[in-house]
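Q: Structure tokens for this one, please.
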Amino acid sequence: MSPDLMKQALMGVFAALVIVAALKDLTSYTIPNWISAVLALAFLPAALLMGAEPLQIAIAVGVGFGMLVLGVVMFALRWLGGGDAKLMAAASLWIGLPGLAPFVLCTGLVGGALALVLLALRSAWLRPFAAAGPPWVDRLATPGGATPYGVAIAVGALLAFQDGLIMRAAGGGFGM
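A: Here is the predicted structure, written as tokens:
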């Protein structure tokens, strides 16, 4: 396998895993641990293959740890779920310090938009339509229900990825 193809495959792994996490959270309010574990374990080989410097990798690990601590605090405050905290930390590894601000900003903005969509979906005028849909849509439309914040985290991670450590280490791209 050529190095460029391997790089593209690793970037595809990141995108696929955060998308699967978002879909799982949207449909079941859970993000399986294996998704965050694979993201975390694939980070080091991806960073090395992309040519990230050891200091950049160490800083990214620090960012990931910091985001895990933040996620644990937010979980303790019941602001998000445990799967959300782990996904946020694992995605932060790939994004690192260069993409952290866009990641946090995009995640917050998408989370706000998601909250507005859920408020509308849970309103008296849309709730009957949601109840007629699949069970997971009905669950999303239940007033007082949880927010699948993994969706916002995944979208934020995908939007910030181009500014992140892995993409910068790859030189902003590689013949794509």
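A few notes: The chain has a mean pLDDT of 92. The chain has one domain: 3-169.
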